[in-house]
């Protein structure tokens, strides 16, 4: 984090050279022009600090443990923290900033949520709090501590603050920095760049955002690019997706700049993608100073912005089945995703679905009176069983034959129907104890030639199984999105946004696939 005034570095876990206060003009190259009115100006901060150093504690002085001091800050943003499996409310998290420009995370435990009147943008005075240790994973601020509101915390609105407090603060990462921290579950940084595609559509006056479909699928996919760097996918989930739609439509024109805070870099489908979190906020062209500055750069550098770097990261390599098996046999092979075209020959007659936990998609097992989740990390005490695809199919191309296993969303893409719907249709005319035969929706796919995105897993590479997991199936006739300014074609994200590499269900399906492959390996060894 940038040093301010005479502030001690003891309160910060690390320095961030790309931290930008919203009141500072942050250029795309990370440099900010000096300003005499800048609240981050060291001379200004020093003068303000000495004015009331005896009454107010600065964030840089916050340490672990109970404190009876007074803090003055602006509430930048607040959001709910919930258990990822049970959805139980854990508490209310906040992002706070004080006059020195230092940012710290705040937290209200679940039992005290609603006790305090919290409004984003307001300035508050807080007396009595507890300094908790900052999170090791998915932290949104550099400070070592979190300000936890305790039983004796006294919060009041500061109507006319005696000092100027910045409105916001951003921590930007470049493509290279996101790549370096990919899958680390580390700090959550901010992204700014320009949009190339939205759900597979180019940015024209004819672009259509189907908010009903987006709300149903809970996310949308935006292809983004910073300066003339690589294009990558940014998945916006739930509130972030809704906020994107609202802002996009409110502009009255097509916005081009996208700034999303606290994104998580992940390898999805073998490529770097960014996904929003519950703490994420969405800004566009004129919303905040960094997006304004980027828009200014974009308007002056359209030729550079329209270039695509050679290392575009949006599509797995296309291979034949023979090449797929050849890759498995290579000693240096790693887990990877590939695209292959094959014809479905046989839908195997073994059980074509399994009953999953409705919370985490792990396999549900029966006890004498109810269903239990087999995932020990899932905290659901009562499990609602949901049928999910677990279908093995034989496929072939001109070079080889293979056995694919279809899981979850991939099954929906193959048949156009959810497994639960097919199971329910069968039980309308049969007893609950009947074994559900392979439905016609699956049998009708025999003879179809489809494009599959498949994963070569550790089980494949270690020779434990030859069955290959399918993570996505493209439509029978998948029209590629129109290209503009040499935008690379993609894999139909617009036609099936819910089943892209970035959706949570897809992640759970792939984890389920790994477990099922492990079971196959055990059976092969014992048999």
From TrEMBL:
It comes from the Eukaryota. Residues 505-527 have a biased composition (Basic and acidic residues). Residues 18-45 have a biased composition (Low complexity). Residues 1-10 have a biased composition (Polar residues). Residues 337-423 form the Replication factor A C-terminal domain. Gene3D superfamilies: Nucleic acid-binding proteins (2.40.50.140). Pfam families: Rep_fac-A_C (PF08646). The keyword Cytoplasm does not apply. InterPro entries: Euk_RPA1_DBD_C (IPR047192), NA-bd_OB-fold (IPR012340), Rep_factor-A_C (IPR013955). Keywords: DNA-binding, Metal-binding, Zinc, Zinc-finger. Residues 1-45, 479-527 are annotated as: Disordered. Transmembrane segments: none annotated. Belongs to the replication factor A protein 1 family. This is Replication factor A C-terminal domain-containing protein. It comes from Brassica napus (Rape). The lineage of its organism: Eukaryota, Viridiplantae, Streptophyta, Embryophyta, Tracheophyta.
């Amino acid at each position: 984090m940038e040093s301010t005034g005479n502030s001690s570095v003891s309160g910060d876990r690390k320095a961030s050279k790309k931290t930008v206060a919203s009141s500072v003009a942050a250029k795309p190259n990370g440099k900010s022009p000096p300003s005499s009115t800048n609240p981050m100006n060291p001379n200004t901060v020093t003068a303000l600090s000495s004015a009331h150093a005896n009454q107010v504690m600065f964030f840089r002085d916050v340490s672990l443990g109970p404190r009876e001091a007074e803090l003055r800050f602006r509430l930048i943003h607040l959001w709910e923290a919930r258990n990822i499996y049970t959805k139980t409310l854990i508490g209310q998290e906040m992002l706070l900033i004080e006059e020195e420009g230092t940012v710290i995370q705040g937290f209200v435990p679940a039992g005290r949520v609603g006790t305090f009147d919290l409004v984003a943008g307001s300035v508050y005075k807080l007396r009595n709090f507890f300094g908790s240790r900052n999170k090791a994973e998915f932290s949104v601020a550099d400070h070592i501590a979190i300000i936890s509101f305790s039983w004796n915390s006294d919060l009041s609105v500061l109507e006319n603050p005696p000092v100027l407090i910045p409105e916001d603060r951003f921590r930007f990462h470049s493509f290279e920095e996101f790549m370096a921290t990919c899958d680390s579950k580390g700090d959550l940084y901010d992204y700014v760049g320009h949009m190339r595609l939205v759900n597979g559509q180019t940015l024209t006056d004819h672009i259509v955002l189907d908010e009903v479909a987006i709300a149903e699928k809970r996310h949308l996919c935006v292809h983004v690019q910073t300066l003339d760097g690589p294009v990558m996918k940014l998945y916006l989930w739930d509130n972030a997706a809704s906020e994107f739609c609202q802002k996009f439509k409110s502009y009255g024109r097509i916005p081009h700049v996208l700034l999303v805070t606290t994104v998580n870099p992940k390898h999805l489908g073998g490529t770097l993608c960014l996904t929003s979190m519950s703490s994420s906020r969405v800004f566009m062209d004129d919303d905040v100073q960094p997006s304004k500055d980027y828009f200014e750069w974009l308007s002056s550098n359209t030729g550079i912005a329209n270039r695509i770097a050679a290392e575009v990261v949006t599509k797995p390599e296309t291979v034949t089945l023979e090449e797929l098996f050849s890759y498995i046999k290579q000693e240096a092979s790693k887990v990877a995703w590939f695209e292959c075209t094959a014809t479905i020959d046989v839908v195997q007659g073994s059980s074509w679905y399994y009953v999953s936990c409705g919370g985490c998609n792990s396999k549900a097992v029966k006890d004498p009176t109810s269903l239990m989740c087999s995932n020990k990390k899932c905290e659901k005490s009562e499990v609602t069983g949901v049928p999910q695809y677990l279908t093995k199919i034989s496929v072939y191309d001109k070079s080889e034959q293979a056995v694919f296993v279809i899981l979850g969303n991939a099954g929906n893409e193959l048949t156009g129907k959810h497994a639960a719907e097919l199971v329910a249709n069968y039980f309308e005319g049969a007893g609950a104890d009947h074994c559900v035969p392979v439905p016609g929706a699956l049998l009708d796919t025999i003879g179809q030639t489809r494009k599959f995105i498949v994963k070569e897993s550790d089980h494949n590479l270690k020779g434990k199984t030859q069955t290959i997991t399918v993570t996505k199936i493209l439509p029978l006739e998948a029209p590629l999105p129109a290209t503009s300014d040499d935008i690379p074609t993609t894999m139909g994200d617009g036609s099936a946004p819910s089943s892209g590499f970035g959706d949570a269900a897809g992640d759970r399906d792939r984890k389920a696939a790994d477990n099922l492959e492990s079971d196959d390996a055990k059976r092969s060894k014992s048999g």
